[in-house]
């Protein structure tokens, strides 16, 4: 039987309580009825993963873990974007120490989410390229709203997604589909993602997506939580072991790749493209 350890800062009078969060870049809301925690990313406009957002996501995941919530749902406060991936400004003409910290924290976030024993689900209420897809695929279940895109488009920026980053993708997609998608920088539409199995369900709104995620987490209510957790970790242990073996070298590889003049040029052009796209919309 689930019995949450309470760390609430708010008296438990209503059906929901909020946990403390390191800053305002994420919020954590726990449904007292279900014991499920919802972690919401709140860095407008697109939840670009800068150092501060990554640190905040990590500490919110740890907080949820320590609270022994019954499950974790990750979503976004942004109306159209779940998460646009790494903040490209962190990679363009970067401060070297900060860039190192950004990559280390992206690793930490992945490791915390991928390796957490409680059930996890992503309510993908908008686009989820690159680092956004990374968060979603670290979870056990994904529900996405219509007309959005999800995928690992790193090659478009001239960077190579390392093995640990791809491992969530490979848990879900056949190797052949994953290889083609990565080499093509393919962003799947919601319908394509469902067809390929990259997401599990489509929902018509964020609220419905969160409900469907909660229903998925609810399917474990009659399963022994320790047996469930050990079974999940058994499936993920090899990827995590490999990651820990390679993580330091991976930081060096990332830094040396991002600092290459041709990659910097590509990132600069990509940023310009984003700005132009916006100007054309206006
Ligand atoms: C070893 C390497 C492994 C790498 C692992 C991870 C790498 C990454 O995560 S790289 C990041 C890759 N991300 C992307 O390619 C996404 C780029 N963004 C988009 O495609 C669109 O913005 C998106 C579909 C997410 C949303 O589209 P819209 O709703 O139409 O918004 P806009 O495009 O108008 O964007 C609004 C605003 O946000 C800025 N923006 C968007 N994405 C990013 C980002 N990733 N980093 C920083 N800034 C971003 C965009 O430029 C606009 O800015 P302003 O013009 O200043 O308003």
From TrEMBL:
Pathway: Lipid metabolism; fatty acid beta-oxidation
Alphabetic keyword roster: Acetylation, Fatty acid metabolism, Isomerase, Lipid metabolism, Mitochondrion, Transit peptide
Superkingdom, natural source: Eukaryota
InterPro entries per the UniProt record, alphabetical: ClpP/crotonase-like_dom_sf, Enoyl-CoA_hydra/iso
Subcellular location: Mitochondrion matrix
Pfam families hit by this protein: ECH_1
Catalytic activity entry: (2E)-tetradecenoyl-CoA = (3Z)-tetradecenoyl-CoA; (3Z)-decenoyl-CoA = (2E)-decenoyl-CoA; (3Z)-dodecenoyl-CoA = (2E)-dodecenoyl-CoA; (3Z)-octenoyl-CoA = (2E)-octenoyl-CoA
GO biological process: fatty acid beta-oxidation
Gene Ontology MF terms in the entry: delta(3)-delta(2)-enoyl-CoA isomerase activity
Gene3D superfamilies: 2-enoyl-CoA Hydratase, Chain A, domain 1 (3.90.226.10), 6.10.250.170
GO cellular-component term (any): mitochondrial matrix
Function: Key enzyme of fatty acid beta-oxidation. Able to isomerize both 3-cis (3Z) and 3-trans (3E) double bonds into the 2-trans (2E) form in a range of enoyl-CoA species, with a preference for (3Z)-enoyl-CoAs over (3E)-enoyl-CoAs. The catalytic efficiency of this enzyme is not affected by the fatty acyl chain length.
PANTHER family: ENOYL-COA DELTA ISOMERASE 1, MITOCHONDRIAL (PTHR11941:SF45), ENOYL-COA HYDRATASE-RELATED (PTHR11941)
Quaternary structure (record): Homotrimer.
Protein name, entry field: Enoyl-CoA delta isomerase 1, mitochondrial
Organism in which the protein naturally occurs: Drosophila guanche
């Amino acid at each position: 039987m689930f019995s949450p350890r309470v760390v609430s800062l708010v008296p438990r009078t209503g059906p929901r309580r909020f946990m403390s969060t390191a800053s305002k870049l994420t919020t954590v809301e726990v449904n007292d009825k279900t014991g499920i925690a919802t972690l919401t990313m709140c860095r407008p406009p697109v939840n670009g993963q800068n150092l501060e957002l990554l640190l905040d996501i990590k500490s919110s995941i740890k907080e949820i873990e320590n609270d022994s919530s019954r499950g974790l749902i990750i979503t976004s406060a942004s109306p159209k974007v779940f998460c646009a991936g790494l903040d490209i400004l962190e990679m363009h003409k970067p401060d070297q120490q900060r860039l190192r910290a950004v990559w280390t924290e992206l690793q930490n976030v992945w490791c915390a989410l991928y390796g957490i024993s409680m059930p996890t689900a992503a309510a993908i209420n908008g686009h989820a390229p690159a680092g956004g897809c990374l968060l979603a695929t670290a979870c056990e279940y994904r529900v996405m709203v219509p007309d959005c895109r999800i995928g690992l488009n790193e090659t478009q920026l001239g960077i190579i997604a390392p093995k640990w980053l791809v491992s969530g993708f490979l848990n879900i997609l056949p190797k052949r589909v994953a290889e083609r998608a990565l080499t093509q920088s393919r962003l799947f539409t919601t319908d394509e993602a469902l067809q390929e199995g990259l997401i599990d369900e489509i929902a018509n709104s964020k609220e419905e997506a969160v409900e469907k995620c909660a229903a998925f987490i609810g399917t474990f209510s009659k399963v022994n939580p320790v047996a469930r957790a050990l079974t999940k970790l058994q499936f993920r242990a090899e990827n995590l072991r490999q990651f820990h073996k390679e993580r330091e070298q991976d930081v060096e590889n990332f830094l040396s790749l991002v600092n290459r003049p041709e990659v910097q040029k590509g990132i600069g052009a990509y940023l310009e493209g984003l700005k132009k796209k916006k100007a054309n919309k206006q």
